[in-house]
Specification:
By secondary structure, this protein is of the alpha+beta class. The protein contains ten helices and 15 strands. It is globular, with a radius of gyration of 25 Å.
Length: 438
Amino acid sequence: MLDVLLRYNFRVYPTAGQQSDLARAFGCARVVFNDGLRLREQARDAGEKYVTDAELSKRLIAEAKTTPEREWLSEVSAVVLQQALADLNTGYRNFFASISGKRKGSKVAPPRYRSRKDNRQAIRFTRNSRFKVLNNGRLRLPKIGDLPVRWTRRLPSDPSSVAIIKDAAGRYFASFVVQTSVHEAFPPVGSEVGIDLGLTHFAVMSDGTKIAAPKFLRRAARKLKRLQKAVSRKQLGSANRTKAVVKVARAHARVADTRRDWQHKLSTRIIRDNQAVYVEDLCVVGLARTRLAKSVHDAGWATFIAMVAYKAARYGRSFAKVGRFFPSTRMCSDCGRINERMALNVRAWDCLCGAAHDRDVNAAINVLAAGQAESRNDRGAHVRPAFVPAVRREAVTHPDAARSTRSVEGISVLHGGEDVKSGSWPPGAPTSTWPSRR
């Protein structure tokens, strides 16, 4: 049995007094985070040593509470403040690992200051804070109280941490992290499938099944346009403008929730019906810079692939990605001939071998064949790929501060970043890479 970390999200409904206490906790965590970032930047500008994690905790929490300027930090749980510094440390570790080459992928920016005007606020409680799920279903948090929770499923084990999140639409969520064993494997089946993702059809399977693109954002465009016009007519800084902005955020949240629910159902069905799933590794970031950017974002390919990946790991299925430069569209699935590049309006084509192909179905068949070839070793046995973490952002980590832990609403698999020793500026962090904060 392999142990994995899963995340469960539930809606919570704090009272007016509890909302005030949560706002105070959000603010205190933000202040401690910004104080830590400012202290390290000042140390760097002065040519001093890297301020260690323990020194930050001592100066910005323990000693700061005894000063008149920061005595109000005692009004919230100390664990919330400690976790704010933990997020700052994670951001620095990821930044140093990125510029030194230890962290692969796109470059990670250094941590930046948090703003009280951010639409999304969050804090995190660990076991040290002694949070508790009561028998009556409420969540007890230190110095906040008992929060009513809308439970939609049972937790498989005791949570190791919980994050309280307030989104742009004013909704509150409790995000639990639990550790459990992979024991929910689906019964084995004999079918394998390759998937070609697109815009006209969201997904085309190698067996010929085509799933139409729902286009949730396009369908809500008229309502969003009307709400955005209402915002533009309101006076800047007025209460009515704030209310109009919340209405826009709620409309976008409805679109995102609908898309996420649809993708969860589709990904679960695909994993349940197939023993192995292969998809093409799309460069979504590059496609989002083209004239098709709005449609690419509306499709949500990256989130869907992440769902398929972690569900395959959880339910005992195989999952693999085919290289993005693999010519799945131009290759004939019958003879293997690779043709010249084809325009997007060419939806069907004939090969010189006499085979007639549907563009998307042919690509899905080629993805399946390539995935099967890559997943077999020289003895012909299947090699299950390692666990792939679902793309879900850690609850209180800014995307530019720490990209090591991400998340999707619902359940996801978490992973951590690499460590950097404290006490000195890492050798992989040259001065030229630091942006000016003055």
